[in-house]
Amino acid sequence: MAEWRATLAADEVERASRFRFARHRLAWEAARGGLREVLGGYVGKAPAELEFAVATDGKPSLVGGRGLRFNLSHTDDLVVLAMTRGGELGVDVEARRSVPERAAIAQTHFTATERALLAAAERDGDGERCFLRLWTRKEALIKAVGIGLGYPLPRVDVSWAAGSGGPVFQPDAPGASGAWTLDDLDVGPDHQGALACRFFVGEIRSFRLG
After folding, report:
1. In this structure, how many other beta carbons lie within 10 angstroms of the beta carbon of residue 22?
2. Is 197 strand, coil or helix?
3. What's the pLDDT band for 60 if we cut at 50, 70, 90?
4. What is the Cα–Cα distance from 47 to 5, expressed in whole angstroms?
5. What is the value of pTM for the model shown?
6. CB neighbours of 56 closer than 8 A, spacing ≥ 6?
7. Which residue among 14, 38, 45, 153 sits deepest, i.e. has the most Cβ atoms within 10 Å of its Cβ?
8. What is the mean pLDDT of residues 35-57?
9. CB burial of residue 193 (10 Å; 0-12, 13-18, 19+)
10. Going by C-beta distance under 8 Å and a sequence separation of 6 or more, which residues neighbour residue 171?
11. Region 177-182: what's the mean pLDDT?
12. pLDDT, tens digit (0-9, with 9 covering 90-100), for 139-178
């Protein structure tokens, strides 16, 4: 942990200091330090030497990254980093937990098909898992599009109900053009994860760090 913290830039150290609780600060430092270590290994630079640029939508990129794209998501106790040279991507991970307000969230953020899927899962006693599965897919998707939570979420369906194996966009919805890969990630029994790529993925390789 101390080794990772030592690689952070001044603005990252300052941002970490804003966290009210130590556990959140430590988790953020570990996520950023681990990100620097992995990316540095891919581009042949020391972690502390890496420089990042931030687009107007808030999405970071690696300066001199040679086409390497990445996206990071973390909870208090798990960090997931996705990397590719194939195109834009987004990843999301959430701890499995109770979401009492899921019906209200679904009403304003889900499509009719997604709400029907969630309602069926609720009747089977599987509502929380279904909600998190749909939510992580949506989060990963909008991160890949590059808009974030300003995206009109009811305009894209991630339920795979149509058997497409990918997102189904309404006409002219942000991100509707091009090929997409959308898949759940196996991140263990205590978490739900999803990966969205704005291109067709041939192979997904995973490894653990630390």
Report:
1. 8
2. strand
3. confident
4. 11
5. 0.90
6. none
7. 153
8. 90
9. buried
10. none
11. 90
12. 999 999 988 778 999 999 999 765 556 899 999 999 998 8
